[in-house]
Design goal:
about 800 residues; mainly alpha; 8 helices; about 95% helix; coiled coil
């Protein structure tokens, strides 16, 4: 019974061993190691030994016990070695945990340092942004101030223009007032002058007709025609000489035109160069703005990457904290600890790889930070380079300005010379102008004297007319008194008188209406005369301007001709000198030949010139004869037109005489209108005084605005200097801060590199130890597999021995039964 109870335990052990042997290496690592406690083995083998002792006491059982004891000892030694290796592995695990904790602390410190660096970078970026904002604000202020200055300047200019306009209007009003006064006085004079003008026109036209008739008679004489032909020949000879003189002037004109074209091209090229320079400046400014925007975008992308890295590191820290919390839990069983050790070794390898990646990322981050610092340093260097470049450009511009100043001085000298010439020419022009103005003043004085005489005569006539009117009014009053007396006495006669009086009133009203119509016509004629006077004044002013322009052009042409002649004379002298040198050499060789040729040429040229002159004279004579015929035809047509005009003028004269008789009646009414006009003139004078006061006020306001503009410009310049000084101070502080941060960052970078190297060494040592442990573990697993195989062989032998023992027991039982 005891043997039957022992058999199942061995089969279970065999199955477990077979399952362990058949499993793969990964299953063996995942399954806990096979451990056999000493009491279980001893109990199993005690059962077998008891059976063997009870059944057989042979040499085979002794051999089996000795083998089993040896195997027990081997198993014990293997288990002890495994326990020792497990203890060492636990110690190494604790050591690695401590190292991991240290590395985590170092990583935290590195994260804190990176956070500080980020903060510093953010502070630097904020400082740069604040500086940019301040600079933009300063630029905006400068722009606003410039706009305000422009606004004030435009206001001042507009105020000045308004004042000038008001002055012009005042002057126009004054002129209009004077003209109105003159027109009022001239209107009365013109009525008297019309008669004289009509008479003079009639006489002038009659004289013109007589002169035309005399001309027609004079044109018919052939002697005069022959004399005109001779004069025309003389004119042709003079014109030919002038043409010979003008050939040289044409060449000079061509040279001057070429020079003017060259100067125009040079000016055009300079203008195009300036336009291209302005365009290049605009493009450079645009490129700077684009580069600044690109730098801002790169900084924003770097900040986004840093934020992503912080989020990733926070996640990794959370995972590591979870893992550490899991590792802090107590291990319930030795088998679970080994499984966790295996899992922890795998996770450690993964984390080690992650740590390597983190270290690589930190290196990349450090490199990025260094690149950022280098970029900022490059930006500062570029800013300093730009400042230096701008200073160089300013110096170059100053040098160019000095050169231009020298050129300007030279040009000023030339201009002074030209101005001296111009002054001389202007003096001559002014002398001529003074003569012309004197003549005009004499003519105007004569006209004014005539007008004053006419005014005096008109005033005398008005006084006479007023006295006549007063007498008529007295006579009317007397007649009214007589009529009242007659009304009291003779009522019937009064009725008749009233009827006659009403008839007279209607008659006088009709006359008054006619006089009003005539007055309206007179006013229209007055307006037309004013327009004529304005046109005449404009015409005379235009003629004076045209004459002045013509004189200036003639003077310019004279100067140009003088310059051309000088140049031509110089060129001719140079050519003459060269020709004389050549001629001196050639004369010695061929004087005789030249004399003969010159004689022949002179004879031929004389004959050719004579023939050409004869032909030209014939052509000119034919042309002049045709012109004279045309003139005769034109004079005949003009005579016919003049006769028709004379008849029309006679009819107009009769009409004007009739109008003059009607105008005398309207003069009385014009006197009343003149008084009204004088009152209006007094009112306009008061308005003019008010306008003068307003002009003075405007001038004071303009002076105040000029003072404010000067103060604003001074403030603007002071603020510019202050902003420049503040900008330079801020840039110096930033450079000093950046240099300090560079030194600190380099020291931190060196420390981090040393710590990183130390961590790499520790991690390499830990990996080497893990590899040795893995190799030892693999060796132990191989030894355990060998032991398992030996156990299987022993189990097989044990089964065979059991079968043999069963057979022996059966034989013994049979033997006993037989006995």
């Amino acid at each position: 019974m005891e043997s039957m109870q022992a058999a199942p335990t061995k089969t279970a052990l065999k199955r477990r061993l077979e399952s362990n042997a058949s499993g793969s290496r990964e299953q063996i690592e995942s399954i806990p190691d096979f451990q056999v406690s000493e009491p279980e083995v001893s109990e199993q083998f005690d059962d077998t030994s008891s059976v063997c002792d009870s059944s057989i006491s042979t040499a085979a059982s002794d051999n089996l016990e000795s083998d089993i004891a040896l195997k027990r000892l081997q198993i014990k030694t293997g288990l002890q070695a495994m326990n020792l290796s497990m203890v060492e592995a636990i110690k190494k695990r604790d050591f690695l945990r401590a190292a991991i904790a240290r590395k985590k602390e170092e990583i935290r410190e590195n994260n804190e340092r990176t956070a500080e660096i980020r903060r510093k970078n953010e502070e630097i970026s904020m400082m740069i942004q604040t500086e940019d904002k301040e600079m933009s604000a300063l630029c905006a202020k400068m722009k606003k101030e410039s706009t305000t200055l422009q606004f004030y300047q435009t206001q001042v200019i507009s105020a000045r223009e308004q004042i000038q306009k008001s002055k012009r209007e005042m002057n126009k009003n004054k002129i209009m007032q004077a003209e109105n006064v003159k027109l009022v006085t001239a209107g009365i004079e013109e009525v008297n002058q019309l008669k004289q003008e009509i008479d003079t026109l009639v006489t002038a036209k009659e004289e013109e007709c007589r002169a035309l008739e005399e001309k027609l008679k004079a044109i018919g004489d052939p002697d005069e025609i022959y004399a005109t032909l001779l004069s025309l020949r003389e004119q042709l000879a003079s014109q030919r000489q002038e043409m010979e003189n003008t050939d040289s002037t044409r060449d000079a004109l061509k040279a001057q035109r070429k020079q003017a074209a060259k100067e125009y091209r040079d000016i055009k090229d300079k203008y195009e160069e300036r336009v291209e320079y302005k365009r290049s400046l605009k493009q450079a400014h645009h490129n700077r703005m684009e580069s600044h925007q690109k730098e801002l975008e790169s900084k924003r992308s770097i900040l986004a990457d840093l934020e992503r890295q912080t989020v990733y590191k926070k996640q990794m820290v959370a995972l590591e904290t979870d893992h550490m919390n899991r590792m802090k839990k107590t291990l319930t069983d030795h088998e679970m600890d080994r499984d966790k050790m295996r899992e922890s070794s795998k996770t450690f390898e993964q984390k080690y790889a992650q740590l390597k990646e983190d270290v690589a990322r930190l290196k990349r981050r450090e490199e990025e930070v260094t690149e950022e610092v280098d970029n900022k340093t490059n930006e500062l260097n570029q800013a300093t380079y730009n400042l230096n470049h701008r200073q160089e450009v300013v110096q170059q511009k100053q040098n160019e300005l000095e050169q231009r100043k020298t050129k300007v001085v030279a040009l000023k000298q030339t201009l002074a010379e030209k101005n001296a010439r111009k002054e001389e020419i202007e003096r001559a022009i002014m002398e001529k102008k003074t003569i012309a103005h004197a003549k005009l003043a004499d003519a105007i004085n004569k006209i004014d004297e005539n007008c004053e005489r006419d005014m005096k005569t008109m005033d005398e006539q008005l006084a006479e007319n007023k006295s006549v009117l007063e007498k008529k009014i007295e006579w009317v009053q007397r007649t009214i008194a007589k009529n009242k007396e007659d009304q009291e006495t003779f009522i019937l006669n009064h009725v008749t008188a009233v009827e006659t009086h009403t008839a007279k009133i209607t008659h006088w009203t009709e006359k008054r209406n006619e006089a009003q119509k005539q007055l309206a016509e007179f006013q229209q004629t007055k307006v037309l005369l004013q327009e004529k006077q304005k046109r005449q004044r404009e015409y005379y002013a235009q003629q004076l301007e045209l004459k002045r322009i013509e004189l200036e052009e003639k003077l310019k042409e004279v100067e140009r001709n003088e310059e051309r002649r000088r140049k031509e004379m110089e060129e001719k002298q140079a050519k003459k000198d060269e020709a004389e040198d050549k001629r001196a050499e050639a004369k010695e060789k061929c004087k005789a030949v030249l004399k003969e040729k010159e004689e022949t040429k002179s004879l031929v040229n004389q004959k050719i010139d004579q023939l050409e002159q004869v032909k030209l004279i014939e052509k000119e004579q034919e042309e002049k004869i045709s012109k004279l015929r045309r003139q005769i035809e034109e004079t005949e047509t003009e005579q016919q037109n003049a006769r028709s005009r004379i008849e029309a003028l006679k009819s107009e004269i009769n009409e004007t005489r009739n109008k003059c008789s009607n105008l005398t009646a309207t003069i009385d009414e014009i006197t009343t209108g003149n008084e009204i006009v004088l009152e209006d003139i007094s009112q306009l004078r008061t308005k003019m005084e008010q306008m003068d006061k307003e002009e003075a006020e405007y001038e004071t306001e303009i002076k105040q605005l000029d003072d404010t503009l000067e103060t604003m410009e001074l403030r603007h310049e002071q603020e510019k200097q202050e902003s420049r000084e503040a900008h330079e101070a801020i840039m110096g502080e930033l450079t000093s801060k950046k240099e300090m941060q560079r030194t600190i960052f380099r020291a931190q970078h060196e420390k981090l590199t040393l710590e990183y190297e130390n961590t790499l060494k520790a991690t390499n040592e830990a990996t080497d130890e893990l590899r040795t442990l893995k190799s030892e573990r693999e060796k132990k697993v191989a030894s355990l597999q060998d032991l398992i195989k030996e156990k299987e062989n022993l189990d097989k032998e044990y089964k065979k021995n059991q079968e043999y023992m069963v057979k022996m027991q059966n034989l013994l039982a049979n033997m006993q039964t037989t006995d």
